Amino acid sequence: MWQADTFNPTLIDKEFGFAEDLGMYSMRIFLHDLAYSQDPTGFKSRLNTVLGLAAKHGLRPMITFFDSCWNPYPVSGKQPQPTKGTMLSAWSQSPGAKSLLNSTDWARLKTYVTDVIGTFANDNRVLIWDLWNEPENTNGGSYNHVEPPNKVQLVDQLLPQVFDWARSVNPIQPLTSAPFGSDYLKGQWTPTEQIQVNNSDVITFHNYAPPSDYENHIVALQKLGRPVICSEYMARPTGSTFVTHLPIGKKYNVGMYNWAFVNGKTECNLPWDSWQNPYVQFQPQEWFHEVFRKDGTPYLVEETNLIKRYNGCPKGYQSSVDNWTCYYGSSSPLSWADAEVTCRAQGAYLATVNSVFENADIASYLSKNYSSCNSFSIGLYSHYGDWIWSNYATSTFRFWKSGYPTNDTNALCVVLNQDGSWSNQPCTNTQCYVCSF
């Protein structure tokens, strides 16, 4: 991502747009020391470009410097192609084993940290500096057989210095590093975890366990009296999902970063056991991580709709009646059928209205935002003489305009007028419309 010949701002911009559509306000982005060292000026220029693209989409990234996960022998230049059927097979650690083992190379790492953070130390586009990802991870099941036997001890020597280097340039952004294990739930902090928690302005943690365990981590860490962010979660088969965990995060006012976003070279739709049993012929029954397919369609529309609801229905309106339903109006005239197809492509239906309060709420939203439209198609239509909703809702609420519905056999589709009343008209009429989910 960070080398000049593979830097792709067009793709980055596109994928940031997916995040904006979900209402996300931050993304976690990993750097690499070798990409910086081969071209410091170009590296910082590319990071500046990424921050600009992120800001365009309302995102303030968490920037991660070092990472103890996966291949301990990184190289600069052309990167290896991923191993088919194996997650994160081309991901490299930073710093690599050679740098860890050679303390004379740590001066290079200091330059990397102080130059990058110093350059952006007063830049509000950066939310937080994540200095080291899972420093105690020795990569059991993948690269543990080629890791330095004293890796964690070396990290424990370097990590406090990394915090000192970062603070020496006086960034306005907070610093953090997330503990890898969970011994702290029992009050048993490892030396690495003690370094992390003693130096972090914001407490971050990783958790891929079911909801009760996730909640226990939050409760334990909030006792430290600092803001808490879960910087990794969401692995569907382990019981860590958007459905189960977002309500807990909201309950405790905890920020949350799911691991992986768009399915691509990293193949994070594959599970951890793909290192032992590559998914070459068949894909897993259920995706492990990832939210979007390569073409930008959601893996599960139900998940992306849920995220939008928790983020206040970005680019639309969240019902003030139930504080949950999302509405999206459009001033582009379409026939009723085409409007329904367009809504469904977004994981929604033409709007359903369940009460006089909802009707007034929707009408108010539409009149304020789409004053050029006199009426809007909603999801009610006539089917063999019965008025039914396109999403098969059972709501019997109706708010007909005086004299409606007419008996015109061609007027089978319903619109919501600017005054909140409903009338029926031919389904072929092109009309503004409103979707809901």
From TrEMBL:
Membrane-crossing segments per the record: none
Matching InterPro entries: C-type_lectin-like, C-type_lectin-like/link_sf, C-type_lectin/snaclec_domain, C-type_lectin_CS, CTDL_fold, GH, Glyco_hydro_5
GO terms assigned for molecular function: hydrolase activity, hydrolyzing O-glycosyl compounds
Domain C-type lectin span(s) in chain numbering: 326-436
Top-level lineage group: Eukaryota
Keyword Disulfide bond: yes
Listed CDD domains: CLECT (cd00037)
Gene3D superfamilies tied to this protein: Glycosidases, Mannose-Binding Protein A, subunit A
SMART domains registered for this protein in UniProt: CLECT
PROSITE patterns assigned to the protein according to its UniProt record, in alphabetical order: C_TYPE_LECTIN_1 (PS00615), C_TYPE_LECTIN_2 (PS50041)
Key word Hydrolase present: yes
GO BP field: polysaccharide catabolic process
Keywords from the UniProt entry: Disulfide bond, Glycosidase, Hydrolase
Family: Belongs to the glycosyl hydrolase 5 (cellulase A) family.
Protein name as annotated: C-type lectin domain-containing protein
Species: Acrobeloides nanus
